[in-house]
From TrEMBL:
Organism domain of life: Archaea
Organism, scientific name: Halapricum salinum
Keywords, alphabetical: NADP, Oxidoreductase
Keyword Transmembrane listed: no
NADP-dependent oxidoreductase domain location: 18-246
Family stated for the protein in its record: Belongs to the aldo/keto reductase family.
Entry GO MF terms: oxidoreductase activity, acting on the CH-OH group of donors, NAD or NADP as acceptor
Name under which the protein is recorded: Aldo/keto reductase
InterPro entries the record matches: AKR (IPR020471), Aldo/ket_reductase_CS (IPR018170), NAD(P)_OxRdtase_dom_sf (IPR036812), NADP_OxRdtase_dom (IPR023210)
Length: 254
């Protein structure tokens, strides 16, 4: 699946104008989830934008209370109704918890795919072993694993696994929820390139060939800056400096 390098994370977005502005600025990948309780907001922003529906990759995630096999189809349909669309392009298992049962849930997702309620299937917060188990129970290729990925939580093993199995890592919380502004290594790379730590964190995530990212932003200025960060090219020593950070902060532990 061909995802744009930078998409919009919408956790905490409660105003359709943010989504409309993002599309106006050039975003073409919108990421929401049932648990964010803003699918209606995202749908409204998409509907009121001048950007055509078929230009946008719309992603949502089934929360753990909709992962029991018998809940998958109705849960998906409820999301589509809130979003105001016939189908999404990307449907995720948000976490391998709650009603998640690899065989039953993944078979139900195959069915939802066959019904064209989604174009692609994906998972989120899965370990390599959990990804492989899910794929073994599902005929549809699992095209992405959305995971926490930023300079304080690097997950290099998962990048290798994604490369080996040919799926995309969708890096969430690429700005570590704002903490990247306080990391000296990121600050020094930002100073060198005369840019912001946010841009460096995004460019660093994108320096890996199988990674795209979904920073959340609210203002037009932040939205535009994050999208433009895809054009910032870091030097190999910048990437190595950030890779060498030995502190770890996981914002969303299982
Ligand atoms: N799959 C999962 O389990 C999971 C879990 C967590 C998150 N996610 C996804 O990942 C997305 C992003 O993660 P996140 O919301 O945790 O954090 P994030 O994207 O790392 O950081 C967002 C924060 O950074 C600020 N910001 C954004 N651009 C900036 C810029 N250019 N300069 C300065 N500050 C900037 C935002 O403020 P403003 O809003 O004021 O611009 C916001 O406070 C979420 O929205 C969600 O879609 C997925």
């Amino acid at each position: 699946m061909d995802l744009p390098p930078v998409g919009l994370g919408t956790m905490g977005v409660d105003d359709p104008h943010v989504v409309e502005t993002a599309l106006d600025v050039g975003y073409r990948h919108l990421d929401t989830a049932q648990i964010y309780e803003n699918e209606r907001v995202v749908g409204e922003g998409l509907a009121s934008s001048d950007v055509a529906r078929d230009e946008v990759t719309l992603a949502t995630k089934l929360w753990i209370d909709n992962l029991a096999p018998e809940a998958v189809e109705s849960g998906t349909q409820a999301s589509l109704d809130r979003l105001g669309v016939e189908a999404v392009e990307l449907l995720y298992v948000h976490r391998p918890r709650g009603g998640y049962d690899p065989a039953g849930t993944m078979r139900a997702l195959d069915t939802v795919r066959e019904q064209d309620l989604t174009t692609h299937l994906a998972v989120s917060n899965f370990t390599p072993a959990q990804y492989e188990t899910a794929q073994a129970h599902c005929e549809t290729p699992i095209v992405a694993n959305q995971v926490e990925f930023h300079p304080l939580f690097q997950q290099q093993d998962l990048l290798d696994h994604a490369r080996e199995h040919d799926y995309t890592i969708v890096a969430y919380s690429p700005l570590a929820g704002g903490e990247v502004f306080d990391i000296p290594e990121v600050q020094s790379v930002a100073e060198k390139h005369d840019t912001s730590p946010a841009a460096v964190a995004i460019a660093w995530a994108l320096s890996y060939d199988n990674v795209v990212t979904i920073p959340k932003a609210s203002s037009r200025a932040h939205l535009a800056a994050n999208l433009a960060a895809a054009d910032l090219s870091l030097d190999p020593e910048d990437v190595r400096l950030i890779e060498g950070i030995d502190r770890e902060v996981e914002l969303f532990p299982e």
